[in-house]
Amino acid sequence: SCASEICSDGVIARELRDSRRRQEAAEAEVHRLDATLALRAQEYEGLRRSSEQALHAAHNRSWELEEALGEVQRRMAGSETRVRQMQAHLVAVREHLVEELRVQLQEVKGQREAAVAELGRMQKELSQSRREVEQQKEKQSSLMQELSRLSHELLSREKQINTLRTRLVEVETQQAEMLCKEAQTPSEWCSTHEKSTMTDLTTKASEPTVDLENYITKKEHTVITISLKDALQQAETKANEALQKYNSAQEENQSLLRELQEQKTELDTIQEALQARFVPVALMEEKEKEVQRLKLALEEMEKRQNQASVNISNIKDEGVQTEEHRQP
């Protein structure tokens, strides 16, 4: 029995030692777990504090976003109101400009048609006046040629008249000498012959005899003189008529030139009046460009409004998501 007791005591001792070792190991594990727990607690405390700070920052950010959202909504409301007003104004302006341009275009078309008709009429009248001026120039040229021909003819006639006058003077002188000789009596010839010296006889013998065939009678001389005077008078009459025609053509030419100048002045006046009454093409193009600019501005404002609406929707979505994260 003693041996059995000794054996049982040994077993108990071993178990006791094993229990102590296990207890020590368990205590060491407990210490390790306590250290790990303390570390985890510190980490948890840090995470808790950081999460609280993040949550606080998120709350602040959420309030800021809500305030910004409210401000944006107020601005968007004002912008939408202004956009609607601007759209209504632009639509009214566009309709007014389109209607005004349509009316002006109709007026311009009517005035242009009238101006084209008036311009065509004035161009026809101007062409007719130019043709008349050309005809007058041709008449004036022909009259100048006729006047030059008559002037040459008059000079030729004057030369012939001067030649005939010289010849007539010579004939009259010769005729007077013949009449003087015929009027002398034979007694005078004899008396003279008796009184003459030998030298006179020699001189008279040397003088040539008068050839009566080279002379004309007084009646023929009168007829020639009258015909020469008539020819001279006719030449002077033709020259005066040509000069009168030339002066008349000059006056008619001046009258046509004045009429042409008046028509040009009237045409210039009509063109100035048309320019004053018509809407210039440049102004119409400028108005069309202004309408296009207004359309582009309206489209740009619509794009901005759509973009602002998208931004508002995004901000609202961000606010909703933030609010969901705030809720546990």
TrEMBL record:
Keywords: Coiled coil. The lineage of its organism: Eukaryota, Metazoa, Chordata, Craniata, Vertebrata. This is Uncharacterized protein. Residues 315-328 have a biased composition (Basic and acidic residues). It comes from the Eukaryota. Residues 98-153 form a coiled coil. It comes from Cirrhinus mrigala (Mrigala). Residues 303-328 are annotated as: Disordered.
